Amino acid sequence: MLKGKNILLGVTGGIAAYKAADICSRLVKNHANVDVIMTEHALNFITPNTFEALCHNKVVTDTFDRNHPWEVEHIALADKADCVIIAPATANIIGKLANGIADDMLTTTLMACECPKLIAPAMNTKMWNNPILQDNLKKLKHYGWTVIEPASGHLACGTEGAGKLEDPSVIVDWVINQAACEKDMKGLSVMVSAGPTCEDLDPVRFLTNRSSGKMGYSIASAAAARGAEVTLVSGPVNLPHPANVKVVNIRSAADMYEAITSRQKDTDIIIKAAAVADYRPATVADNKIKKKDDGSDLSLPLERTDDILKYLGKHKKKGQFLCGFSMETENMIENSRKKLEKKNLDLIAANNVKVEGAGFQGDTNVLTLISHDSEVELPLLSKWDAANRLLDEIMKLR
Ligand code: CTP
Description:
The protein is α/β, with parallel strands linked by helices. It has two domains: 6-179, 3-Layer(aba) Sandwich (Rossmann fold); 189-397, 3-Layer(aba) Sandwich (Rossmann fold), CATH 3.40.50.10300. Helices cover 33% and strands 24% of the residues. Helix 8 (168-179) crosses helix 9. The structure holds cytidine-5'-triphosphate.
């Protein structure tokens, strides 16, 4: 996702500095070129060798290193960076950046950076709650920095509370959000639905399907990385919250209907990747349904759920783009075309679960994008790449 991108990782002196190695490794695995600048205090927690082994670039530590062409280097690193991430960021670096202090390699470089800048603070809860620190963060936000708020949990100082460095996977997701794509969807509001729905039968049982939510989450992440304002209406899944995306968690088809239809009018593009239940138990038992002593079978009356996409097609706003998904096991094109017409869609992304690498659970998909007068067969792609190809097609058609 970060191929050809230069990411500048700033590491400052906190106990969470060891987690910066994981961040560096994840950025490299995403094919970024990573340059690392460490403050003098960071050297007390982790050595430059760790980062050099991971990113294969010389780690920069001090403006006055005589073996280093420092006079140009801090400007060169600033010019080259597509995105900066400071992780972990101490109260000290936040204070310096908010107040224009540039007294070492990291702060002088950041002073010259015009690319998107991210900062992931990590510190003791009382330091985090200090109003001076909070004012400094407000100031950084005002100057365009994105603050990745720390998580809550057990801290190295032995207390529980806010101040724990956010998970490295979440931090890297933010870098991808800022640096991976051209912002060609800026100004557009996009709503994506993802995952399965759960239709309760009694307090312990429910009907659902095999959807993992990965396709819809990739579409939401990609649209956000391309600059769109994204709302993701998600059924129960086991996936992290994508960076810069508003997530609305729902459980049933009825919840999803409410969440989506109530937001329809403010949305430019709606992409319905969710696997919504077509039927739900006609009644939900208050207590657990018990087996019959006579050994007889059980039949469950099911009733139809409302078709959300059909409603959206019927009430389509002028200029609104509506994209559905269609999962088939036979006659994929013919059946998908019928859904395109019946639900008044602009595009339908069809996939056949019987094709290897397509469909639920996996990290890849094989999509055919069908509009009223075009048909684009995509090859086997990662869900991220498939999501971007789908967004390219939407941008071309709308
Ligand atoms: N969909 C919806 N509301 C429902 C059911 C489905 O919005 N109650 C949406 C899905 O999110 C998807 C598309 O409709 O974008 C799938 O269309 P559908 O006709 O439901 O496909 P299948 O469920 O595959 O249809 P069938 O079971 O008839 O094959």
